[in-house]
Every structure is written in C-alpha cells, then in structure tokens.
Amino acid sequence: MPEYLDTATLIALARAAEARAPGPCACTKTPLDGWQSQPLSLDETQLREIGTLLHEEDPEPTFAEYLPGKLDYWSAGAPIAPRYFPYNRCGVWECSSCGRLYLRYTEGGGYFVDRRIRALRLALIEDVSL
Predict the structure, then answer these.
(1) Nearest-angstrom CA–CA distance, 70 and 57
(2) For the residues of 117-129, what is the DSSP string, one character each?
(3) Where are the domains of the chain?
(4) How far apart are CA 5 and CA 3, in angstroms?
C-alpha cells in the first residue's frame, strides 16, 4: 500500500509541486481544477502514485463531504479537505512530464465505475476536523 500522507505532508508536497510547475499544464486538454472523469487525453503512463490519503487504520472512511457555502462537489473552488469524502479515499499522483500533482479515486455505483481526477492546488487544502 502507498505511504499515508497526513495534511501537513500533503501541503508540503503541493507547495513544492507548484513551485516546480507554476504555469498551465499541457499534459491534458481537459481542465482538472475540479473533479472530472479521467480524460482520455491524459496519458496515464505519465502518472506515478506517491502516496495516499486513505488512512489504513480507518476501515470505513466517512462519506461526509466538506462543502461550505454554495460550492458543490464538481466546483473548481471546492476545498480539498483530506478527512472528508472523496479526498479520504484518494491517491496522490505525480505527472512525470510536468511535475504537477493530482488526486485520484474510483467512484463506484451500482452499474458503473468512474476513475476521477482533480489537480491538487495548495490554496484549496483545508485541514478541518470531522
């Protein structure tokens, strides 16, 4: 299992990644500021998992979401709250081409499985308790 990343480590990784790659990403044609189904334009072989926000000692992470105000799950401005869904089930992945970091998880329903991805943005990380 990938290494668990606490919020402080996630913030440090996001800060370093944004310093390395401050401009727009050319690795995918689809903006990934908010959650998206993983686009076909993103070459998955460029991604390397560097850690997880899924704590191994939490057998059933919450499905509660942290969405203050009028933001919704798909919003590019929605906070990244590692203790809340879906972040508490995410892997943290690095693009080997541009150095940016992405959050990824698999959304499963009764009749579908959807791999979702979102760019990790330092300014949106919020360390809020359940």
Answers:
(1) 32
(2) EEE--GGGB----
(3) 7-124
(4) 6
